[in-house]
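A quick aside before the break. I want you to see a complete sequence-to-structure record at least once, exactly as it would be stored in a machine-readable document. Don't worry about memorizing anything.
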Amino acid sequence: MTIRHVVSWKLATSDESERAEQRAAVKAGLESLPATIPEILALEVGVDALSADNFDVVLISNFADEAALQRYVEHPDHQRVAAYIRSVVGARSAVDFRV
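That is the input. The structure line, written in tokens, reads:
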């Protein structure tokens, strides 16, 4: 059964130009991962388009099973992108569920 991994981030900055740059960097970083991490079955990244009160970025990705998700989490390329995200994020939420 497939594991769907959904993560949302709220950026820490209140400066709108900085927020736009960080949103784009987070999106680009996450979207680069399928090229080097074969465990990713599907990956979609969305940037909020409607409200400054919403979370800024969402990741929706699919993995064959929990072991594949764990290999993704531990992969050096994921670790590099995650380190940048942690450096700019004020809040995070995540849900992993079976589909």
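Two observations worth writing down. The mean pLDDT is 97. The radius of gyration is 13 Å. We'll return to this after the break.
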